[in-house]
Amino acid sequence: MIYKRYRGDIEEIEPILVFKQRLYTMDKSYTVRYRSYLDKVKDDFKKGKTHRVLAKSNSMRPFIVGLRDELTLQQTNKQSFKKGSILLAELGGLNHVVHRLVNIEGKDLLLRSDANFDCTEMCKINDIIAEVVAVKRKGKIVRKGSFSWGYYRYLSYFIQAFNTMQM
């Protein structure tokens, strides 16, 4: 099941029938169908706008906590495709992930979550929708390139190395 936050409470929704994303714009919040929102986001990126969305899962823990942290998305550029970048990828249908770029092989990208090192996703450069450029955690904004951003990036590599040594 997919859960979303609704005015402080957590509400259970059906993943395929009513897959919705909670949006935040200034002081207003509203809910729309995910597919129509994604089309709007792609159009807005072409105009140079950014979007903020609520993280839905804990796959990027400890850096991004689901149902608490807010992600700022921006259109990708050449600088977006470096190891360690956090990207929003479309893996087909309604499957979208925000994961860290681990490896680049030609036009193929290998993505991995910070919390689960066993699962990786392969996608093409064309499947990337946006790059995460800031995360609002506990009321504070962590921007790409800041000390905290780099700390969590290297922490994810340290945890991965530690877990592989344990196995």
Outline of the structure:
The protein contains 2 helices and 12 strands, in the order E-E-E-E-H-E-E-E-E-E-E-E-E-H.
List keywords for this structure.
167 residues; alpha+beta; Umud Fragment, subunit A; two-stranded antiparallel sheet; 12 strands; 20% helix; globular; disordered N terminus
Structural write-up:
The chain is of the alpha+beta class. It has a single domain, classed as Ribbon (Umud Fragment, subunit A). 20% of the residues lie in helices and 42% in strands. Strands 5, 6, 7, 8, 9, 10, 11 and 12 form an 8-stranded antiparallel sheet that branches. It starts with a strand and ends with a helix.
Compile the SSE list and pairings.
Elements: E1 2-6, E2 9-13, E3 20-25, E4 28-33, H1 34-46, E5 51-54, E6 70-74, E7 86-90, E8 96-105, E9 108-112, E10 120-124, E11 128-137, E12 140-143, H2 147-166
Antiparallel strand pairs: 1-2, 3-4, 5-6, 6-11, 7-8, 7-11, 8-9, 9-10, 11-12
